[in-house]
Every structure is written in structure tokens, then in C-alpha cells.
């Protein structure tokens, strides 16, 4: 923690949160209009075992939370800003829980602040939404630090390790990714194990069609989105051996570490990856130490922010395992260019048909950098913080209009305590009356 002699550095003065109104803007990748490839094309998911949840991922609620934003203001008036997913529940957690650890704190104490938020929410958190909320707070603090110092975030976490950042593209059409200049393409697997042998055959035909469309040497990856099991993974990987699949991604439940060992043992020559739905260094420790994964793929907007991602990357580097972050736009770009064990970055196609390059966060920012011809010059990141300018027309709703009680005020006493207090007031009044009578 900072000493008293360093108190001239701005402290955290205020925390504000916002919900992004509408769709297609902000940090919830899946909060897009109907018809978008990411939600309304056949994609195998953990919910695909039920037929009525196969047609659209919105049917089972993948976009139910929506985007939210955190603004952290320093005592000198400098403002840091970040976006992620979580909607009104995320705003509530910020103001009613995490804010207490932040107001008055030195924003340079990123490790200290992360640990307090993580450990303070351990009884209900450790994974999922609470950690995703911590992530956005952490990113906003890093943005604040960069703006106070006048430096891009990547300069504060190690500096540049290259002059350009190369991308592969996740989308529905590998031919489009190739035409746009990306070095490789990743497609979602359409059919789940519960669709039987016919579904397996359709998956193989689907991948064969895409392999033929881009030629034998263009890297092609497959995203299974936690939807397979060990026997099915072993079977489909064997059936596609001649298709030269570059890697198989997130085949199993994030918690099935033993399963990853089994599929790697069955196919030691193939590459398997996972990690976007792992939420801490503790979970990644199991994945990394098992040495059953060829690449890990944390999401900086879900994992705990830049502070936790740096710890995971250091752990992976000790095992020579590459880190290729899942999506997250410029937040990931700053991380990747600063790390020697991060060879490239994912671009998650944000256009409705996946055939053009649009900003990952939609119209939330005015100047979000995007890859052109499959790469980005690192010099484009040379702006303070994450280098993003909030769009004045961004559809932001301050949390104070959504939450009860207003986050400007702390929660009052629980109803039971209020009743006890009222009852005690009555008792005190009676006692006082008796005293007055006895002295009269």
C-alpha cells in the first residue's frame, strides 16, 4: 500500500455505474439484435441437450443481463472508464458491496484492492457475476491510472513486445475471415451430443465444408462452447483428423479437469484449449499444472480484470503455455502486446453476418481500434489508459435511476432492526415518563 509520503497521488474519489440501454453496445457480447450470427445460428451449447433451446441462444437467456459500465473518478478529476456485462445486478454489487473498498484508496494499489474485493465476496462469489463485476472495476482503475500518468496501459504492465498485433477471427464464415486478412478462423460447432450419430455426421460435414472452402493450409479452429463430453470429443476429433483442425476449444465443462486429461491422452497430437469461463488464478492453476491444454484463453472482462490476468499469465509462462485471451477488444490488446507468451489475439466478429470488421463494443466509444487486414499496429494503442473515448451519444442510464435504494445513499437498517429500534424508542419513552412521575 502507498505510504503517507506518496499521498500527493490522486486517490479514488467516486464510483459511478451505468447500464447500457438497448442492444449492440457495450461489454455484453451477446446483447445484440435478433438475427445476429452470434445468437441466432445453430451453435452447440450446454443447453442444446433440450431441443427447444437449440434455435437461439437468447431462448435460454444468454443476453439476460446486458452491458454495464463503471466510472472511477480520481481526486484530481481524472476519470477512468470500463465496460463489461452484468446490467443492473452488477451496478448493485458495485455500490452496495465493492465501493466500500475503493473510496479514498490509492488506485495504484491494484493488488490490494483486487484481494479485498475478491476475498470480501468469497462467500457468494469466486466465479461468475461477482468476479465479472470486479473485472470491470479493475479495468476502470487501470484506465484511470493510465490517464493520470499519461501512459497507455500496456506501457504500465511490461511495455511492447512487438510492433503489430495479429488476429484470428471467430465467426460463421471462414472464407470471410480469410478474405478480411485474418491469419485463421474459428467456427462454432453446430450440433450437440444429444443429437446422436446423425448430429455427429452433420458436424463432420460442416467442418469438412469449411475446410474445403479455405483450402488445406488456412488455420481452422472449432469452438465447442462447453457442450461436449469426453467420449464425444474423442470421437469427433478422430473423425476430423484428416481436416487439419488447428485446435478444439472448450470441449468440456470448465470444471472437468480430469476430462481434459482424458481427451489429451486419447489425442496427444491434437491441440485442445479452454479458459474463457474460468474465473480465477486458482482455477487456472489446475488447468495449467495438468499440462493437458495447449493454450489457455482467459477473458479479462470476466476473470478479475488486468490485475488477475497478469497473475494467470505469469503462471502459464512458467509452463511455456501460450495465453490467447478470449475477445474483450482493446482490454485484451493492451495485455497481449505486453506479454511474450501471448502470440496473437482473437477478434470476435461483431457484424450481424460476421463478414465485416466492426468495433467489439459497438458504438459505445468513438475511437475503438479494430484490426485491418488481420492486424493492428501497436502504435494505435499509444493513448493514455486504454485509449477509448466515450461516445457522447452513448445510451447510458445512471444506476441511481434503476436501483432501490439510490446508490448515492447506503442501505438503511434491515426492517427487523428498524422495528427493534422503534420498540426501544417506545420503551425509553415509557421509562422517561415513569421517572418524571416519580420526581413530581
Automatic annotation (TrEMBL):
Domain named Mandelate racemase/muconate lactonizing enzyme C-terminal: residues: 172-268
Superkingdom to which the source organism belongs: Eukaryota
Cross-referenced SUPFAM superfamilies: Enolase C-terminal domain-like, Enolase N-terminal domain-like
Cofactor field: Mg(2+)
InterPro entries (alphabetical): Enolase-like_C_sf (IPR036849), Enolase-like_N (IPR029017), Enolase_C-like (IPR029065), L-Rhamnon_dehydrat (IPR023444), Mandelate_racemase_C (IPR013342), Mandelate_racemase_N_dom (IPR013341), RHMD-like (IPR046945)
GO biological process: carbohydrate catabolic process
Keywords, comma-separated and alphabetical: Magnesium, Metal-binding
Record GO terms (molecular function): L-rhamnonate dehydratase activity; magnesium ion binding
NCBIfam families linked: PRK15440.1 (NF011968)
Protein name per the record: Mandelate racemase/muconate lactonizing enzyme C-terminal domain-containing protein
Amino acid at each position: 500500500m502507498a505510504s503517507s509520503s506518496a499521498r500527493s497521488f490522486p486517490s479514488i474519489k467516486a464510483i459511478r455505474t451505468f447500464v447500457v440501454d438497448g442492444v449492440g453496445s457495450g461489454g455484453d457480447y451477446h446483447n445484440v439484435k435478433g438475427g445476429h450470427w452470434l445468437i441466432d445460428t445453430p451453435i452447440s451449447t450446454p443447453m442444446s441437450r433440450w431441443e427447444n433451446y437449440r434455435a437461439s441462444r437468447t431462448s435460454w437467456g444468454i443476453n439476460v443481463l446486458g452491458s454495464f459500465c463503471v466510472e472511477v473518478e480520481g481526486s484530481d478529476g481524472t476519470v477512468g472508464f470500463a465496460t463489461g456485462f452484468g446490467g443492473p445486478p452488477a451496478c448493485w454489487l458495485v455500490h452496495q458491496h465493492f465501493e466500500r473498498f475503493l473510496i479514498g484508496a490509492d488506485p495504484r494499489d491494484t493488488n490490494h484492492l483486487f484481494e479485498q474485493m475478491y476475498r470480501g465476496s468469497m462467500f457468494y462469489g469466486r466465479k461468475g457475476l461477482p468476479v465479472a463485476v470486479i473485472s470491470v472495476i479493475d479495468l476502470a482503475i487501470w484506465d484511470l491510472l493510465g490517464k493520470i500518468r499519461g501512459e497507455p496501459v500496456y506501457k504500465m504492465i511490461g511495455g511492447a513486445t512487438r510492433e503489430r498485433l495479429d488476429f484470428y477471427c471467430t465467426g460463421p464464415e471462414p472464407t470471410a475471415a480469410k478474405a478480411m486478412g485474418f491469419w485463421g478462423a474459428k467456427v462454432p460447432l453446430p450440433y450437440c451430443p444429444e443429437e446422436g450419430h446423425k448430429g455427429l455426421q452433420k458436424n463432420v460435414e460442416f467442418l469438412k465444408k469449411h475446410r474445403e472452402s479455405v483450402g488445406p493450409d488456412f488455420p481452422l479452429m472449432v469452438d465447442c462452447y462447453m457442450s461436449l463430453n469426453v467420449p464425444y470429443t474423442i470421437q469427433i476429433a478422430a473423425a476430423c483428423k484428416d481436416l487439419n483442425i488447428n485446435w478444439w476449444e472448450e470441449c468440456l465443462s470448465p470444471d472437468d479437469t480430469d476430462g481434459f486429461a482424458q481427451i489429451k491422452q486419447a489425442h496427444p497430437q491434437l491441440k485442445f484449449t479452454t479458459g474463457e469461463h474460468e474465473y480465477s488464478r486458482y482455477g487456472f492453476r489446475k488447468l495449467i499444472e495438468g499440462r493437458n491444454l495447449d493454450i489457455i484463453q482467459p477473458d479479462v472482462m470476466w476473470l478479475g480484470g488486468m490485475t488477475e490476468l497478469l497473475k494467470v499469465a505469469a503462471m502459464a509462462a512458467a509452463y511455456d503455455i501460450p495465453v490467447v485471451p478470449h475477445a474483450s477488444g482493446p482490454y485484451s490488446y493492451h495485455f497481449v502486446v505486453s506479454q511474450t507468451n501471448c502470440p496473437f489475439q482473437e477478434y470476435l466478429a461483431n457484424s450481424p453476418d460476421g463478414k465485416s470488421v466492426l468495433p467489439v463494443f459497438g458504438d459505445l466509444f468513438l475511437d475503438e481500434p479494430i484490426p485491418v487486414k488481420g492486424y493492428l499496429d501497436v502504435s494505435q494503442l499509444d493513448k493514455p489508459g486504454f485509449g477509448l473515448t466515450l461516445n457522447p451519444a452513448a445510451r447510458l442510464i445512471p444506476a441511481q435511476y434503476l436501483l432501490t435504494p439510490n446508490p448515492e445513499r447506503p442501505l438503511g437498517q434491515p426492517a427487523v432492526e428498524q422495528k427493534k429500534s422503534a420498540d426501544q424508542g417506545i420503551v425509553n419513552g415509557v421509562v422517561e415518563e415513569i421517572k418524571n412521575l416519580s420526581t413530581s
